[in-house]
Amino acid sequence: MSATNSPPTSATLPNATAIRRTLPFGNGNGNNTPLSAMVAESGSDVKLPNDDSDASDNDDPDDLNTRTKKKYTKDRKLGEGAYAVVNLGHRRATATEPAVPVAIKKIKVNTEFRDGITMDAIREVKYLRELHHPNIIALLDVFSSKNQNLCLVLEFLDSDLEMIIRDTSQTLSMGDIKSWMLMSLRGLWWCHKSFVIHRDIKPNNLLLAANGVLKLADFGLARSFADPKRHMTHQVITRWYRPPELFYGAKFYSSSVDIFSLGLVFCELMLRVPFLAGNTDLHQLELICQWLGTPTEENWPGVTTLPGYHEASGTPVKERGTDFFMNTFLAAGESGVELLMKMLRLDPRKRCSAREALDSKWFSQEPYPTQPANLPKKGGGKGIEKVGSDLKRKAGELFNTPDERENPVITRKKKHSAVVAPVPEEIENAPNEEMGSSDDEEMEYTNDEETENEDNEEVEPKNVDKPQAGSKTNPPPPPTRNTREL
Amino acid sequence: MEDHLYTTTTQCKTWSFGPGTLSTLRQTTNAAGVRSIKRGWKRARVEASTANTPLATTPIPSNNTTPTPGPDPLSIPDPEPLTPSEELILVNYYMLRLMAMSDIFSFPSSVKATACIFLSRFHLHHSVHSYHPKHLLTTILFLATKTENNYLSTAEFCKRIPKLTPEAVLKYEFKVAGGIGWDFEIRHPLRGADGGIMELLTALGTSNSDPGIQTLKEKLGQNPSRRVTDAAGRMKGYLTKEALVSDVYYHYTPPQIFLGALWLADKELAEAYIEWRFGENSTMGRPLKKKKKDKKGKERAIEDENTNEPKKPPALAPKLIPAVIACAEMMLKAQEYEKIPVDVLKRIDKKLHRCQNPQKFLGAGSPIGIGNDAPPKKQAEEAAPPPEKRRKTEEDLFGGSLR
């Protein structure tokens, strides 16, 4: 890739640019006059008194939309999925600023979702409009295309952490890993500080700018902290990175779910394969029990009262201690292992917060975190395409293409031989008619006391638990116990 | 008094205004709306006169109630447009309708409040001349259910309101979403308020000998906890009505609005609370704060205030109280909107109807603004200076208590 020869601006919109408020109200010509100043201006600004001129009033969102749209050019398609099309684009050069590459994510009108702007898009826009941080992808603009497709103009980032992990031709030093962890945690800290839970942390949602800076992306599953007593759905986070409390159907959980996910990303950075790659939810939970320990009342008071709790099959494993982690992740060193253990505690209340993680000694010890600019990079056109597909992927999905699905880049796990024809993507987006009913069949928990204050979250579970090959004929709702074929 | 985090929100950056700015903004919006009406009528006149053979008085479909333009269309005067304050009256009336609509579904107050703020923000920049609020209510409410994580399908949504179709709900969704600048996140005082009440109840419930709490108890009389719960109920009422109808969201931070509502609900309680938390002798113990953090950060607003309260702070109370009082007064003023007689509203609506439908009066032209079949393309011209009409009134209604 062009880390070296692409202009540094490409993926590193200076923060100021990133935060610029392009919307509301008629600053289509790129000036960023504060609203109040603009108002004064437009009052005194006498233009041609031509009654039927096509110049626009402030008043019309359509005009505003057109002006916003005109700020960008569309260059070429980077990827297309059932959910969105991602195009590489540019913000047109203005008198003062050069053209800047951007990614334009066009959310397709989902024929199955008949209720206007989809929830993923709503969430993504809602949170990215608010979250401004160097380690969070910047939403530059929003407009609608002529066919009433929603287009998000995002900062252009040219690779992701998954590509780095999978590129086995590269060795990753502990300093590199530290640097990526540090940047992820900073982004996550800001989310949590702003009362937002990301709920889909995984390597391919951690995007990398050309200058090496890591940014959290894909807020399609994010939500704010719930009010007390309001339920949240447990059908979130891609399976391999999902924490045990969600498998147990917890309705009240916190930002610690993101910490667990990031802990597993940490492992993956060291192992270069997903640490816990379950084929089904049940299998995933088994893996957690087996590798991290079996949740019991002892190590996790209250776990047995969770709605989906069931006793693990097989011999219970004691929650892993330092010895196990030191053996498995020796490279991280003592303080690294200490951090990792705190992030992967079974009991969510015992997990560290992003802030505490940032305070870990590990970051201030040698080897120091690598400067972003010196981090390993994955190159070229491939990178761009991949990120294109990362952005268009539906929240919670793991693979981008059927091909990838059949031949995942995981080497450690055995492959299932019976690979059935890949599912056309649409099916995965089948609408989830009854929201509340997305209970996991595998869990079979009782639905008592479910009524009050149910938080009607529209999270389409099948994306999270995407039925993989073979599920084509299954009627959509819930996530099914069918196996992900690997 | 806002904390650092709040200053990063779109609510603070884009949707907070100084006292004068808001009314200027409304006038500008009004002026743009008036211009679009004028243009529409002008076009309609041209059409009427070009088609104006004597028979051009061909009855227009559905003109049964309106006067048939027997006379020369050119002799019919331009309609009288709405003033900024009339626009506001109309918007606020529809906001009350919106609340009622939300209650049909028994949506949580966050949905209701968000919907109201969406409506208010939309019309801050879009004149009712071009966008009659009655066509937007369901769209806005539905959008609010989605942004507040309370999604239900349009089919379900339409079941509850007679004659409503999903198409009608979604038709203007992009317009509304774009019209509010895609800023879906609204910081309500509701959470902070809940947190504050919890904090009070916790403090009163302890047998702590903390002098601050002791004074607090003394000030609240016989049954302090009861008093707090009663006040909380009334406060919630203010927060879900007056706070939304008034402009406090544009001028004050969520914690200030919460305290303002508490002030209205029980002045002494609010005073005592502010004194306890932010007064000269504030003895807020650290442990209590710590405990609150553990509640998953519920008390956003309260925490906001915590950050403002360094170790040995100059007391915040003297600065805070005037803001709270001003905020409370502004909310109280909003009660006038409920008292506006129906015939005033009818008159305004009639004026608006005339403005938007030149075809019914001239026999030519097309409807102006959305809601009619063909949303006409408005053209702009910036010549007309904003009419200064009734500016006084508006300032009376909203500018008075600001300072």
TrEMBL record, chain A:
GO-annotated biological processes: positive regulation of transcription by RNA polymerase II
Basic and acidic residues compositional bias, start-end: 383-407
Residues involved in ATP binding: 78-86, 105-106
Matching PROSITE patterns: PROTEIN_KINASE_ATP, PROTEIN_KINASE_DOM, PROTEIN_KINASE_ST
Catalytic residues in the record: 200
Cellular-component GO terms for this entry: cytoplasm; transcription factor TFIIK complex
Alphabetically ordered keywords of this record: ATP-binding, Kinase, Nucleotide-binding, Phosphoprotein, Serine/threonine-protein kinase, Transferase
Domain of life: Eukaryota
Compositional bias of kind Polar residues: 1-15
Compositional bias annotation for Acidic residues: 51-63, 436-458
Reaction equation(s) it catalyzes: L-threonyl-[protein] + ATP = O-phospho-L-threonyl-[protein] + ADP + H(+); L-seryl-[protein] + ATP = O-phospho-L-seryl-[protein] + ADP + H(+)
Family in the record: Belongs to the protein kinase superfamily. CMGC Ser/Thr protein kinase family. CDC2/CDKX subfamily.
Name of the protein in question: Protein kinase domain-containing protein
Species per Swiss-Prot/TrEMBL record: Arthrobotrys flagrans
Automatic annotation (TrEMBL), chain B:
CDD domains registered for this protein in UniProt: CYCLIN_CCNH_rpt1
Keyword list, A-Z: Cyclin
Gene3D superfamilies for this protein: Cyclin-like
Record region (Disordered): 48-81, 284-315, 358-403
Ranges of compositional bias, category Pro residues: 68-81
Biased composition (Low complexity): 57-67
GO biological process assignments: regulation of transcription by RNA polymerase II
One example GO MF annotation: cyclin-dependent protein serine/threonine kinase regulator activity
Domain of life: Eukaryota
Basic and acidic residues bias (residue ranges): 296-312, 375-395
Location of the Cyclin-like domain: 96-178
Record carries keyword Plastid: no
Protein family per UniProt: Belongs to the cyclin family. Cyclin C subfamily.
Protein name: RNA polymerase II holoenzyme cyclin-like subunit
Organism whose genome encodes this protein: Arthrobotrys flagrans
